[in-house]
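Blackboard transcription, Thursday session:
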Amino acid sequence: MKFIVSENAGATECGRETGRSKVQNRLLEAGILSAILLGGAALRLLYWKYNVLIPSRDGIGYAAQIAAWYQTGSFDAIGAPLLLAHSATPPFLYAMGRLLMGFGCSQYGGVFLVDIVFGSVLPLVMFGCGRRLWPENKKLAYLAALLTALHPTLIAYSADILREISFLFFAACGFYFWLGMLQRKKALQALLSGCMIAMATLCRYEGFEFYPIAVFTLGISIFYREFSWLQALRFAGILVLGAIAGYCVFFWLAQIPGDYILGFFGKIFRYFGMNA
Amino acid sequence: MIFTLWHSLASICDQLTYPVALAAVLAILWSLRRGSWRKRAIGCSLALTVVFLCGWRIVLPLVSGRYFAILILPAIFLTVDFLGDKIQKKWIARGLWSIVIVLMLGKALRFTSNDDVYFQLASDIRHDMKSYRRPLLAVFSNDGKKFDYTLRDSDIEILDFSFLAENPQAHAADASKLVQQLQLQYDVIYLADKKQLELPADAAGKSFGSTLCRYRAGKKSSKELIIYKLAENRRIPEQQFRRLLSPDLEAVNGSFLKPMPEAQQTRICRRLVQQGFVQFQQQDIHFPQGWIPEVYSESTGKEQVFYGLDADGGLWIKTPNRFAMVMEKRLSVTEDFFAVAVVSVQTPVRLLLGSYNYDDRDGRFEGAFLHGLIPLAPGEGQLVVFRLDRESVAGKEIHLRWIVAGGSIKIHHLYFFPCRLWYDQKDNGRE
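(Written on the board underneath:)
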């Protein structure tokens, strides 16, 4: 067996000697990932240009509400805050749309930009999740990123004014950090996982289902003796702290009124009765 | 239950796309057969996560496929695991991957939007409405938002009538009657729908409208999008009409200056509190004499209803659903009447004119009817005119109902007087 003798000797892939240096390997990997991300972004832009002549019905409504908030400077302009909370659209998309209108984007253009960016970066997050799921096989992570970049439903969600793609982005990020918490037992991973789950709930209410999932996976880890009771409780607490921090920072930055916040959390208890 | 299950599975396949859904199912079956997922906590956790995510979505009747979007992520991991790792023969795995990627790309690059037809319709409407000062587009299909978007830079007002199908109280008033009311407010009305509408007609049955344009709703669709045009000039010139209005023409206590008797007020407040509107427990709530409030709200929105009466007249109403003021006096309508409101609107609202009808022979209650609906944008001192034709209430006695739907409004005055007063004034050249 031939070995390359140099300071970068030993570059292997899947346990196979490749003939490339580590730097070359890294460049190749970055190139492949960049090609997947850029290809996914190009597909989304093509789809947006040729297939989304008019935004979705919901999207037109969101854009009108964003414009009302931006023009009046008051969240109340979206609808009475409690009414909005009862109806009620989680505010992440509104906040992002309003922020981008402040930078000169239109009420439609800003939110399109948000969705296309989240949709284009999602394959990168899926790559990261793949690296954690299959640490021995990098190829599978690339395939996960590729499939995410090419998935037609994800492309369609990215190219319209919808809340789904930002929800999926934060859900994937939450999953990434949650895997890190389970595998590496690092508090920071738990904290970031909580933050990302909180952001996912601020996009769609279904994000709240990730909290019981996170808790029962810790319970399973105790059952398998991969975590002690104390460790599991500690990480559960850090996850919750991370979520609270995520909510606080978002509500403060976006200047969401207090009565809306109460209505937002109150709706969880009525969710399945209202929307199902 | 079976239907819900089938619908959910169809939605899942639609969201995941069939190749990924099939690969994910095969991955699950493979894992169940091998049992390797049970060996480690993470495998077990992922398995239970998938069961939890799918479980409640399959059994609940979810109307939108977007609730299943989250399943795309685990489906991608399952597909990758199955096609990338489990299939031993590389050429089979590569062949399957090629098929999946080609199918994904094929679907992603299939541009099937039919929305260009809305731009054509909008262009036709823009061109036609140039000669009219106050045009309206009334949309009877569920395309109101698309017309909002394509006509957003024009001066036309757009009214979405698709709610008629959802509103049980409106079943007694057909589109034709509502549109006739709107003709008092607008120079021209365009009606958009996907089927033949019954256009308003005169006594001889001659239709007032014509077809402006029609387009196929999509390349493969059998439906047509049709725009009808009503340009019969029935709009009441507002400035001249305002000069007619005087306190003599007000409805009973139409400025709301006289308060309701204490005992009656207490009874009404108690009824509203029992219905869950606890804000009416306050001591400083006053109702005007001759007007009975009726409040409708979903169980979760009761606290959002706001009502107030200014000392110098004027009713404040804010509601997420509907708030009606019902005229206590029962009227027998023997000629055509105008019902007019002067209002100031804070947030967009709909103002409706309805009535409770009773048979004038035996007093039997016949039901609630809707006579007109006007959408109102924010603005001060707006004039809203409804016409109550005697034919629509012939042989009946009515309690008029002014209904505020979904918004915030102040009603300054309510008028109710015979149409002949206006037409006599016009004929005598006193405009």
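Lecturer's comment: Confidence is low (pLDDT under 50) at residues 1-12 of chain A.
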